[in-house]
Amino acid sequence: MQILIKKSTAAFLLIASANLVVAFLAFFVLPPKFFYDTAIIIYDKYNEIGYFGSYPLTILFYKIIGFRHIPFPIIALIQFPILMYTLYKIGIPDNFEKVNIKNLLVYLGIFMVAIFISMPSKEFMTYLFIALIVFVCSNKQFSFRKTILITIVLLIVFGALYRPYFALIPIVGGGMYLVSFINFKNKTITTIFYGLLIVVLLSLSYGVLKGKYFSEISRELVNSTRMASGDANSIITSPVKTDTWYGEVISVFYGFFTVNLPLNGLKHILSPQIIVFVIWQLLLFYILLVRFSKCLKERKKYKYELLIMFILFSFFILQGVFEPDLGSAIRHKTGIFPLIYFALYYEHFRKELQ
């Protein structure tokens, strides 16, 4: 009996298989700095295991499933196929085998997933959670209102239990959604701009209540102990101190552009991995911006896709506040890769669901 496989499916399986080898070999070739988080998760030196917070829950997860005693290459052979199967279930777009900019971005994204989630990682759990949101948004058995409600609840719960800034996504995304109804000349850019202003207001409000702004308790705090480190060549530091309201405003905008339009990353000419990420990020952001604009123009037709875009761009905005360096930015992008994948190919998935 002859088995026929579509070219796009064959290409996906080939790329996944090749990157499975990459994931397996990652332990043997990556420098120690790639395993800092993994060491915390596996060895739990400070007994952080628990039920709240990204580190405590991740440590608990890997302890329960017994991965703390398995060699990293074997873990890669288990984790990476799970991640690729998740993408497979989301769907494989037509013409996935053709070499174009969009497909190349995804090919490279899969490679980055193989690098960063080939070991015990917080991004493994984030990836699976984000995939759940994609499945909810692409399941037309739910009404649109129910989809929004489920998505908001999932983000808030995940933020409360695991990564706090995910709980802010509904606030930022909801604000951007309301702003998008106003008839601006350039609605896409203006909507993102107001998303940034919402984060500024949230940070300033937090500062009034707690005495410190978002940047101070996250990016600046982490980087204050890493300034002289050899592993911190891509750290993101605000050009002004963030202990004033105007300093925090500048920091939020600076962080957003540094993470999402990292032109200043081109100065790392001797770090090819950073240059590759910069090019990948610039192209990705541009394509997503164009697709976001299309969804805004035809919001009734693309209402589910627009929901995905609001989540994605809200994450991009918040990422600019909390990311300490470009390396972390890459790692965290792999955690939301199912969302990026769906956003890049939403027209294909829309046809499948009709």
Task: Tell me about this structure.
The chain is built from 17 helices and no strands. It has one domain. It has 354 residues and is mainly α. The longest helix is centred in the C-terminal third of the chain and has 26 residues. It is 69% helix and 0% strand. The chain is globular. The mean pLDDT is 91. α6 packs parallel to α16 and α12 packs across α14.
What topology emerges from the helices and strands here?
Layout: H1 7-29, H2 36-43, H3 54-64, H4 72-90, H5 101-116, H6 122-137, H7 144-161, H8 169-179, H9 187-210, H10 214-217, H11 219-223, H12 245-260, H13 272-297, H14 303-322, H15 326-335, H16 337-344, H17 346-353
Helix pairs in contact: 1-4, 1-5, 4-6, 5-13, 5-15, 6-7, 6-15, 6-16, 8-9, 8-14, 9-12, 9-14, 12-14, 13-14, 14-16
Q: Which features characterize this protein?
A:
354 residues; single chain; mainly alpha; 0% strand
**How many domains in all?**
1
Q: Count the DSSP helices.
A: 17
Rounded Rg:
20 Å
Low-confidence stretches: none
Q: How would a textbook summarize the main sheet?
A: none
Overall, the morphology is globular
Structural class: mainly alpha
The H/E string reads HHHHHHHHHHHHHHHHH
Distance between the termini: 31 Å
Number of strands: 0
Question: How large a portion of the residues is in β-strands, by DSSP E?
Answer: under 5%
Fraction in helix: 55-70%
Mean pLDDT: 91
Would you summarize the structure shown here?
With 354 residues, the protein is an all-alpha fold. It contains 17 helices and no strands.
